Task: structure prediction
Amino acid sequence: MASDTSSDAAKFAPQPTPETEPFWAGCAQGELRLQRCSHCDEFYFPPRPFCPSCWSADVTWQAVSGRGTLHSYVINHRPAPGFAADAPYAIALVQLDEGPRMMSNILGVENIPENLVLDMALEVTFEQRGDITVPQFQPAGAQR
Result:
């Protein structure tokens, strides 16, 4: 689900590169895509032209489940450019079911330690920021 509010456009939005374009195109279509090595079958993130496990350049993009768990986090209480309207907010390390870890934010719950339980089940949600759609995570089963 993507939200589209006027404050979303003011938030930081990454700039796609030719190497990351398939990732951002997937986000725009509401799916999380990762690269997978055709040689050793490993998923990996962030995008790069070769597998970090076996160095093969035979890699493809695949849609993944968008499910994972909260591996670690920090709560930022200070306003920051592009995030000031959302302080405090969680900067989270999400362990994806497919293996890689991804930095993101946690939405759908108040960002306090009591609500951010390590290993809690998460699922991807998408947020529109200007011309780009950004993957975020929320507790599994939460409605945004």
In short: Strands lie at 2-3, 33-37, 43-44, 59-63, 67-76, 89-96, 101-105, 121-129, 132-139. The helical segments are 6-10, 21-28.
